[in-house]
Amino acid sequence: MPRQTDKLHAVRAENERFTVTLIPTAVQAVTALMRLTGLSKTDVLNRSVQVYGFLAQEMAEGKEVLLRDKEGNTERVHIV
Prior knowledge:
Blueprint: H1 24-37, H2 41-60, E1 65-68, E2 74-77
Antiparallel strand pairs: 1-2
């Protein structure tokens, strides 16, 4: 069943610049992701927002986020 068009999935053709102040834990997470992935700060933030948007939309539709480890154990992820 195709998704209804909503603001989250609307496509914008041009880039937009934002100025934000991140809390210390967010700064640490961005830095860790930059080291882990080799991506720039901009790329890490762009991807993070897109992943969060996807997860928020899926959870709004009643789905759950689950992680499965190598042994097959599953854990539900709670995003607050």
